[in-house]
Amino acid sequence: MSFDSLGLSAPILQAVAEQGYNTPSPIQAQAIPAVLNGKDVMAAAQTGTGKTAGFTLPVLELLSRGTKAAPNHIRALVLTPTRELAAQVGENVAKYGKHLPLRSQIVFGGVGINPQMMQLRKGCDILIATPGRLIDLYNQKAVKFNQLEILVLDEADRMLDMGFIHDIRRIMTLLPKQRQNLLFSATFSEDIRALAKGIINDPIEISVTPRNATAASVEQCIHPVDKPDKSQLLAHLIKQNQWSQVLVFSRTKHGADRLARFLIKKSIPSAAIHGNKSQGARTRALSDFKDGRVQVLVATDIAARGIDIDQLPQVVNFDLPNVSEDYVHRIGRTGRAGAVGKAVSLVSAEEFKLLSDIERLTQKIIPREIIKGFEPDERLPESRLRPPAGVKKPKKPKDPSKNTSPPNQGNRAQAQNGNSNKPGEGDRKRRFRKPRASTAAAKS
């Protein structure tokens, strides 16, 4: 299959070709025709599958067939959880819409709102926004939704994790009832399905990977280590293996800053990226990492959404995530486009429960390797693969040869017959039972 067969117009096909793409990814091959047919879509796809182009290409095509947006109005709205992801989607729209007379704009918090309001006065065909800033703009009467044709919820699972559910529900009340809805998520959790019920109408459901599966192109490994030795072990692995570009995940913002400072002292160029950093600092850190000026980027899960690097060879879980699904999303950032990637996790004994939850989710025991000189004092327990959550073990059939009567049944019978000093269950029931009315009284 080629992009030519998907129903896209010549200007879009030209832009796609200029980016060096000839064949659509599986998510694109399924999503693009569905969106062009005007269907609502729910799509589950891991990072690196091309899902952003899976909705930007058909949205651009549909909007190119209509009339431009009036001042302060928008025709398509893409909601994203983070600034970085908004910028990534905006880049995608700009690249593939470069030969179309369409206007797009990116809005998010952390920067001045007035320039964004000024831009919206001209009207906008595609608005990419974070929920909070969009509500601010609406309250300022800077954006109107009367002309809205298409709504896209990107990274819907992360928006729920970040607590945007109330903002999303409020935004839904402001939008026209007649619209096309597209929901993209890394996984289809029960919370995502509950959210979709109030937004999506009779959707086409697309899933290009098995639920909660890890990519086969990613080599996974665990290095058991005591928690205080993690930083030294990470520095050792980077230097020993000559890793040139490493994305390291930290559970906390302060932990990310502390680790980046430690690595810099070890002469390893590093930067931290998280929600407490200014937008300028986050943009510079990401740009330096992509360009090779920074060797190690230490990120929290939320800040890492929007990091889009085609050939990322190494991902390290300095801390295991509290949410097992985040492990799948983290390691999905390496091993893309047919390349082999490596995901290394530094795991202390106190994180064994988190490790067990991850292995239960993925149904895979992750191999372990103890690094010489970093042998843990507290041994990491051996893993045992449990069935996935919600799957119960089948009950063993009862042996008919054995007596199945409850124990002490005879004693209860004796108690009810007055042969025991201890009252039985039957006595208790009779003792508190209201006297029944006589038949004659009932009839009267």
Produce the secondary structure layout.
Elements: H1 10-18, H2 26-36, E1 41-44, H3 51-64, E2 74-79, H4 83-96, E3 104-107, H5 114-120, E4 124-129, H6 131-139, E5 150-153, H7 156-161, H8 165-174, E6 180-185, H9 190-197, E7 204-207, E8 218-224, H10 230-240, E9 246-249, H11 253-265, E10 270-273, H12 279-291, E11 296-299, H13 301-304, E12 314-317, H14 324-331, E13 341-347, H15 352-362, H16 409-416, H17 425-431, H18 439-443
Parallel strand pairs: 1-6, 1-7, 2-4, 2-5, 3-4, 5-6, 8-13, 9-11, 9-12, 10-11, 12-13
Helix pairs in contact: 2-3, 3-4, 14-15
CATH class of the largest domain: Alpha Beta
Looking at CATH, the homologous superfamily of the largest domain is P-loop containing nucleotide triphosphate hydrolases
Number of helices: 18
Largest sheet: 7 strands, parallel
Gyration radius (Cα, Å) is 29 Å
Biased composition (Low complexity): 402-421
Function: DEAD-box RNA helicase involved in ribosome assembly. Has RNA-dependent ATPase activity and unwinds double-stranded RNA.
Subcellular location: Cytoplasm
Organism: Neptunomonas phycophila
